[in-house]
Design brief:
Length: 301
């Protein structure tokens, strides 16, 4: 019995190499010249596409995660920068609006100063008074600019108050609404004279000692009468806002709202050139005492 080899041996390895090399060259030439393998290539690409996608999935997932975190960090940085820029723009816009409003107010003050014959000094508030029970402010003009106690302080609308104390570089102004402030006024509608008093922190004025039957109505405009020698006549002071009449009382309660922007502006005009009134005549007793002395002096002479 003839012995059979355990493994059947075919062509030699070199023969196989030559065969497959020739086959590859033939397929390459055929594909290059006649494009016979395009359908096969397309079929294989369709069959291998899921495997290719599956192989690319970990890399794409890692890229997406990295891009997500990078995008989040960039968005947070840009959001922070935009917020800071927004705050800067908002602050600049507020300052611009404040400057526009201040410029308009100053123009109105200049127009008011041109209307008056009196000399007016433009002053700005430095700070408010420290006493919480009074309505006083400190302005940045003093005796060096000609300010004196008793001079009127106005804005483009009307009376604000008057200078009560003066210093070299600053002055104290008592506002119209101070509880110790009184201003002689006159009704524009009928010429009735009266006096208005401040009510302190309430920001209102009160017309006191007016009889119940007085011809006063809501909405009446009050202007300075000029009889006190402090305020020039015709300056707007207040508008009557509320009237309480009770026949049980002799006087009516009349409340007014100031016309000027007492709590709204920083720049005011101080009227430094108001004409002083002549001194009042002496009382009768002084005249009587002066007469005997003059007569006695004449006899002695």
């Amino acid at each position: 019995m003839e012995h059979q080899p355990f493994f059947n041996r075919g062509p030699s390895i070199w023969a196989r190499l030559a065969f497959f090399t020739f086959l590859c060259l033939a397929l390459m030439v055929t594909d290059a010249r006649f494009r016979y393998l395009n359908p096969l290539r397309e079929t294989l690409s369709v069959l291998l596409y899921p495997l290719q996608s599956l192989a690319r999935t970990p890399v794409e997932l890692a890229d997406r995660v990295s891009e997500f975190f990078v995008t989040q960090a960039r968005l947070q940085r840009e959001n922070t920068e935009l917020k800071q820029r927004h705050l800067q723009d908002a602050s600049q816009l507020v300052r611009y609006q404040a400057l526009v409003a201040e410029n308009a107010h100053l123009r109105k003050l200049l127009a008011v100063r041109e209307r008056f014959n009196e000399v007016a000094v433009l002053a700005e508030i430095v700070y408010a008074g420290h006493d919480p029970f009074s309505r006083k402010i400190i302005i940045d003009k003093g005796t060096r600019e000609g300010l004196r106690a008793g001079q009127a302080v106005i804005d483009e609308v009307g009376v604000v108050g008057q200078v009560t104390r003066e210093f070299s570089l600053s002055s104290e102004v008592t506002l119209l609404t101070d509880k110790d402030q009184a201003v002689p006024v006159q009704l524009v509608r009928n010429g009735l004279r009266a006096v208005v008093y401040g009510l302190g922190q309430e920001g209102q004025l009160e017309m006191r000692f007016m009889p119940v039957s007085a011809d006063i109505q809501n909405g009446d405009v009050l202007v300075t009468s000029g009889i006190d020698g402090v305020y020039p006549p015709g300056l707007p002071v207040a508008v009557v806002s509320k009237i309480e009449r009770n026949s049980a009382f002799a006087f009516a309660k009349i409340y007014c709202m100031p016309s000027a922007g007492i709590d709204r502006n920083r720049q005011y005009l101080v009227l430094t050139g108001s004409k002083a009134l002549p001194p009042p005549p002496p009382p009768p007793k002084a005249e009587e005492e002066a007469t005997p002395k003059q007569a006695h002096g004449g006899r002695k002479h």
